[in-house]
């Protein structure tokens, strides 16, 4: 069965590459990119080897923890976990979890990212050379077990995330995830802002690392330090803890796979709605006046409130701005006014996140296409549904940062720049989502899934939309920066320019997106199907 | 642009579509007379869905033209598309809406005002026996119910030409009877129905004209009587498209 499952995976990848040659090119670029970093890894290894054993262990724990966060969060935030081996695909063949798990496990461990991480972790392991071969052996074992835990942990997180988002509690779960994420950052922010980076690093960070080294997040990475000190019991129990963690995660993964094989993702759960919210929509902000655009707006409003794919996007938008505020501002001891970047980053993240918006309709967009030449109405309805919640949230965040800095003279410039960034990024998204759409998880599918290779196609579209947005954003950001650095009078100009350019880019982007939609309507379905 | 009363409901000329090395539709010429109940039949992979997708604006042809009642669909979609009602096969629907909302959505996209939308939505839910399911999300519908709600969306703006891909697939006999009555009455009132199906008996029963599609080409078309040529439609179909190459006996499947 292992060979069969691995064979399915390889065969699928080969077929896709034969059908779309560019997938092979993108994988080639990925491999090249990874190879370019190998000299850096070798340098890190030799640098670590020259450090005292405790510094080396601390560095290994930090790397293991950051890698762990990355392995769990990246697939959740960036749709792209390969779903070739989504256990749900094995439902129809009647195989049970016990039979397919060895194959799924082997397939999960034999991917390019895992092989690359194995190389990187292996090099870190070899940095224990100065402490003898026994320490190297323990380090290799510890890092190996850590990597296995990361791979299994990512699978468990994706399957649990999928289940929660497909359930009737998806909305509450998204809100809880956002609150938990922010809640976890608050103590860190408090420490960094109140004590400063150097104190935190000297006291709290050391304490944190020593605690992490006692958990499955860092035990494997810290085990060679114990071995180097001759504490074989300490090395042994850390390795055992790391191995036990991998076993527990594998069991949790297996339980999820077993469930996926017999229980389809929860759908609507038979829920009933009393009102026709398309025909008699509740009044709201930014609702278009004309019938077709209002209908699309109402449909997208429902999606933002209940579709797992949209809820997953919603949960991810706060990550970058929050991390900037909590980590970058205090760590680099920046002027408090740097916190204004939070509102601007949030606006840019929200807008950029919609660069593939049309593809989220998947083949259901046939109804929009056959109903006439409705490109403008469709795009107006779509983008206004995002703007309806994003504009108030961005302005609220801008006001919150003004409360923090107490520099109310910066308010006009900040509000103008935030509106400008949101308008420009949504305008760019309106065009890119029609011009370069790529396959997104279809309704009812794993919201974290993507067909092998679409990550690459998405990367091209993301790069293109980012480049255009980056080219346009200085128009609204520079006047605001001048208001902070040259004269507050620039603030009013930044306000006027930001609002004018933001509204102009939004309206222009939506119109242009609509025109492109109509021109490409006969190709859109094939592009997203 | 003015539509011609004498023009065919659908007129396809040299319609061509290629997917990589596969020629899915090969210079198809077809006229579907206005007021007819037209069946399109063909084996799996014959190019029926691709042809109907190009004929309804869902898929851009590589070459050729499509006219709906005399209007060039790809040159003037804003005139041609309102005359079409479309039910595709195998595509998603906006399944986070309820059945009632999905019909309202289709109606509003077609420019119907609120009151007309409300009236027609309720009529369609009743006619298709979906009144009880109108408030349920489409994601919880069975395949047959999804088909019926899709048909309601195709009908809501009272089009002149209905293009339906497998409209009876997965639909229960009672609902199928209701759909047959709606479609027959639509044709009697001057409308045109173009329907693809794999069920020959259904095509013989409902359609007055039929086209047999095979390997991306029209192998035969005309009245059902003409195409049948004295045999039954299924027999004629097998003659035209060819039987399976080998009638291999699956002895291992036998129970005794």
Describe, in short, the structure shown.
Chain A contains 21 helices and 2 strands. With 529 residues, chain A is mostly helical. Chain A has a two-stranded parallel ribbon.
Describe this structure in words.
- With 529 residues, chain A is mainly alpha-helical.
- Chain A contains 21 helices and two strands.
- Chain A has helices at residues 2-19, 21-36, 38-49, 53-77, 97-109, 112-126, 133-166, 170-195, 197-212, 219-228, 232-262, 291-306, 308-317, 319-331, 340-352, 366-370, 375-405, 411-435, 454-472, 474-485, 489-528, and strands at 81-82, 449-450.
- In chain A, strands 1-2 form a two-stranded parallel ribbon.
- In chain A, helix 1 (2-19) packs across helix 2 (21-36), helix 3 (38-49) packs parallel to helix 6 (112-126) and helix 15 runs parallel beside helix 18.
- The longest helix of chain A has 40 residues, at 489-528.
- The model of chain A has no long low-confidence stretch (mean pLDDT 85).
- Chain B is an alpha/beta fold.
- Chain B is built from nine helices and ten strands.
- Chain B has helices at 48-55, 77-80, 99-109, 114-127, 143-155, 173-188, 200-206, 224-228, 233-241; strands spanning 10-19, 22-32, 37-41, 63-68, 71-72, 84-87, 161-165, 192-196, 209-214, 217-223.
- At the A-B interface, helix 12, helix 16 and helix 21 of A face helix 3 and helix 4 of B.
Uncertain residue segments of chain A:
none
Number of domains of chain B: 1
CATH domain topology of chain B: Rossmann fold
Report the principal-axis shape of chain A: globular
Globally, the shape of chain B reads globular
Strand content of chain B: 15-25%
State the secondary-structure class of chain A: mainly alpha
CATH class of chain B: Alpha Beta
Quote the distance from N terminus to C terminus of chain B.
68 Å
Number of helices of chain A: 21
Strand order of the largest sheet of chain A: 1-2
What is the assigned CATH homologous superfamily of chain B?
P-loop containing nucleotide triphosphate hydrolases
Which value, in Å, is the CA radius of gyration of chain A? 25 Å
Number of structural units classed as domains of chain A = 2
Mean pLDDT of chain B: 91
- SSE order of chain A, one letter for each helix or strand: HHHHEHHHHHHHHHHHHHHEHHH
Please estimate the helix content of chain A.
Answer: over 70%
Strand count, sense and barrel status of the largest sheet of chain B are:
6 strands, mixed
Please give the count of helices of chain B: 9
Q: Total number of β-strand segments of chain A?
A: 2
Largest binding interface between chains:
A-B, 48 and 47 residues
């Amino acid at each position: 069965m292992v060979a069969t499952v691995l064979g399915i995976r390889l065969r699928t990848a080969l077929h896709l590459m034969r059908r779309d040659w560019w997938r092979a090119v993108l994988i080639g670029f990925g491999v090249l990119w990874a190879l370019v970093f190998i000299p850096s890894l070798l340098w890190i290894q030799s640098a670590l080897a020259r450090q005292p054993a405790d510094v080396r262990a601390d560095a290994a724990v930090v790397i293991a923890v950051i890698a762990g966060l990355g392995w769990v969060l990246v697939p959740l935030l960036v749709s792209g976990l390969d779903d070739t081996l989504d256990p749900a695909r094995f439902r129809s063949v009647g195989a049970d979890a016990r039979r397919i798990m060895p194959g799924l496990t082997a397939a999960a461990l034999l991917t390019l990212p895992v092989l690359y991480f194995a190389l990187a972790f292996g090099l870190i392991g070899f940095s224990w050379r100065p402490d003898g071969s026994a320490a190297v052996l323990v380090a290799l074992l510890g890092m190996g077990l850590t990597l296995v835990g990361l791979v299994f942990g990512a699978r468990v997180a994706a399957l649990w995330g999928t289940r929660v988002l497909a359930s009737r509690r998806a909305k509450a779960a998204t809100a809880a995830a956002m609150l938990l994420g922010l809640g976890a950052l608050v103590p860190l922010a408090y420490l960094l802002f109140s004590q400063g980076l150097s104190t935190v690093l000297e006291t709290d960070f050391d304490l944190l690392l020593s605690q992490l080294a006692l958990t499955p997040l860092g035990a494997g990475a810290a085990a060679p330090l114990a071995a180097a000190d001759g504490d074989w019991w300490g090395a042994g129990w850390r390795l055992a803890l790391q191995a036990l963690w991998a076993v527990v995660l594998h069991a949790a993964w297996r339980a999820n796979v077993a469930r996926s094989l017999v229980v389809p993702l929860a759908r609507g759960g038979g829920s009933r709605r009393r009102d026709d919210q398309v025909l008699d929509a509740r009044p709201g902000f930014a609702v278009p006046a004309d019938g077709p655009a209002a209908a699309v707006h109402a449909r997208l409003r429902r999606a933002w409130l209940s579709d797992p794919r949209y809820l997953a996007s919603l949960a991810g938008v706060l990550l970058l701005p929050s991390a900037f505020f909590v980590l970058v501002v205090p760590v680099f001891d920046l002027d408090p006014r740097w916190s204004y970047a939070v509102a601007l980053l949030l606006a840019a993240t929200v807008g950029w996140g919609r660069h593939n918006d049309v593809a989220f309709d998947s083949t259901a967009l046939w109804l929009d296409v056959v109903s006439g030449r409705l490109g403008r109405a469709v795009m107006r309805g779509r983008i206004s549904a995002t703007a309806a919640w994003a504009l108030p949230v961005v302005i609220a965040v801008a006001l919150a940062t003004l409360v923090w800095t107490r520099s109310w003279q910066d308010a006009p410039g900040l509000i103008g720049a935030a509106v400008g960034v949101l308008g420009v990024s949504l305008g760019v998204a309106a065009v890119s989502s029609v011009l370069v759409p790529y396959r997104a998880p279809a309704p009812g599918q794993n919201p974290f899934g993507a067909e092998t290779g679409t990550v690459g196609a998405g990367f091209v579209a993301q790069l293109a939309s980012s480049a255009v947005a980056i080219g346009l954003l200085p128009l609204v950001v520079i006047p605001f920066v001048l208001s902070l650095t040259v004269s507050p009078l620039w603030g009013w100009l930044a306000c006027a320019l930001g609002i004018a350019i933001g509204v102009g880019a939004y309206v222009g982007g939506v119109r242009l997106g609509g025109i492109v939609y109509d021109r490409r309507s006969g190709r859109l379905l094939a592009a997203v199907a | 642009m003015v539509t011609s009363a004498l023009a065919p409901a659908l007129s396809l000329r040299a319609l061509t579509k290629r997917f990589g090395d596969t020629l899915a539709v090969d210079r198809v010429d077809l006229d579907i007379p206005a007021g007819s109940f037209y069946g399109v039949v063909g084996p799996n992979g014959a190019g029926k869905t691709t042809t109907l997708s190009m004929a309804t604006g869902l898929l851009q042809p590589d070459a050729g033209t499509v006219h709906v009642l005399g209007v060039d669909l790809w040159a003037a979609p804003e005139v041609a598309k309102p005359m079409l009602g479309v039910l595709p096969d195998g595509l998603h629907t906006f399944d986070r809406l309820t059945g009632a909302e999905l019909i309202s959505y289709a109606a509003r996209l077609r420019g119907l005002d609120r009151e007309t939308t409300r009236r027609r939505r309720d009529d369609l839910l009743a006619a298709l026996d979906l009144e009880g399911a109108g408030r349920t999300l489409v994601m919880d519908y069975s395949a047959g119910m999804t088909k019926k709600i899709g048909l309601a969306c195709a009908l809501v703006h009272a089009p002149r030409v209905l293009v339906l891909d497998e409209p009876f697939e997965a639909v229960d006999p009672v609902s199928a009877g209701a759909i047959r009555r709606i479609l027959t009455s639509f044709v009697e009132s001057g409308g045109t129905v173009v329907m693809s199906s794999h069920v020959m008996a259904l095509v013989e029963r409902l359609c007055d004209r039929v086209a047999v599609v095979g390997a991306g080409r029209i192998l035969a078309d005309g009245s059902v009587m003409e195409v049948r040529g004295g045999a039954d439609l299924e027999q004629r179909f097998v003659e035209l498209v060819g039987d399976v190459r080998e009638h291999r006996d699956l002895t291992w499947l036998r129970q005794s």
